[in-house]
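My convention is simple: the sequence line spells out the residues, with the fold written below as integer tokens. I include a record here:
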Amino acid sequence: MLNSDAHSAAGACYPPPPRRRPQLPILLLSVASLYSSAGRAELPADNIISHIERAARAQLTRQADAAGLLEPQFEVAVAQTGRVLAPCARAVAVEPLDVRLPNRMRFAAVCPGAAGWKYEFVVRAAITARVAVSSVPVPAGRALAADEVVLERRDISAVADSVADLAALLGQASRRSLRAGELLRKSQFAALPLVKRGEAVRIVARRAQVEVSMAGEALEAGALDAVVRVRNAASGNVIRARVVAAGTVEPVDLPGAAQSSD
């Protein structure tokens, strides 16, 4: 009986011991701590690059607005350096260092604090906009006509004085001959003189509803709105007059004001 009982006891099946349940509160606490620590790093490496790109675009937009560009578009890329960026426990600031040349802009990313850092980045940008382009060949020294200039989208990354207002070019003369399809620059043009030195001009003085016209002689050349010296043909007095049209000037000083003599 004893052997039989012992055999029965040895062959009996007992349920396995219960498994230990994982410590979920501790695990959740560890994950929460990880995300909390990551949240304190305001700008990880990838975000710093994105932040610099946004700062560059904002800078380009301000410059385009100041230049009066039409429908500007930007392509921005931060030059890769292979540098490993350390995390920053505080908000990273992005500062412009040199933004004069779009194809080589320099920015700094600054992590504040005693254990902070400062890294410099180069940003290369391409800018396109709708700008003035000559539609036909134009000889030098002749006033530009309305049908000789059009607006086209061009890359102006390396052009600081492109023209977006076609009306501003009308009546201007190029200092050199222009090819058809050439991107026009402000530095290429000069206003044609409407009054030439030694030329007979008409002096028109207006006060209220009264207009008086007299003959004169231009002592200086001048374009539209330029102030030049003019000799009154009748009195011989020299006055300062503003050019208002071809061969026509208006006295700058009111009648009766002191005038100089030549």
User: Anything to note?
Assistant: The two ends are 150 Å apart (CA to CA). Residues 1-13, 22-42, 256-262 have pLDDT under 50 and may be disordered. DSSP finds three helices and twelve strands in the chain. Helices lie at 2-11, 24-40, 45-67.
